[in-house]
């Protein structure tokens, strides 16, 4: 819903890791997040949509924090937004499963 109808939507998901952290990034090519909304996106009941309850990012934030992680984002108006979920490796109980996949064309 953040991607204008005039633009073909693109969502890119990456998994990066070091000895200490695992980071998942989710990038879209949407309109970006307005400056006055940046501080509110993780608050419960905040939404810019005509429908929905505004709980998604608040719940995600609570879950990530419960694993001693953090969630944050970078955004550029008219270009898109990247959300980052960073978790400590100890939250994975020492296990890191290799995931391979195909970045197929989703329409």
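Sequence proposed for the structure above (107 residues):
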């Amino acid at each position: 819903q953040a991607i204008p109808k005039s633009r073909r939507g693109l969502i890119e998901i990456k998994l990066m890791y070091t000895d200490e952290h695992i980071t998942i990034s989710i990038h879209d090519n949407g309109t970006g997040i307005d400056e006055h909304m940046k501080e509110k996106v993780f608050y419960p009941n905040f939404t810019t949509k005509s429908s929905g309850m505004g709980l998604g990012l608040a719940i995600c934030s609570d879950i990530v924090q419960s694993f001693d992680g953090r969630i944050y984002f970078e955004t550029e108006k008219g270009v898109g937004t990247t959300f980052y979920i960073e978790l400590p490796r100890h939250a994975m109980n020492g296990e890191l499963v290799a995931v391979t996949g195909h970045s197929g064309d989703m329409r």
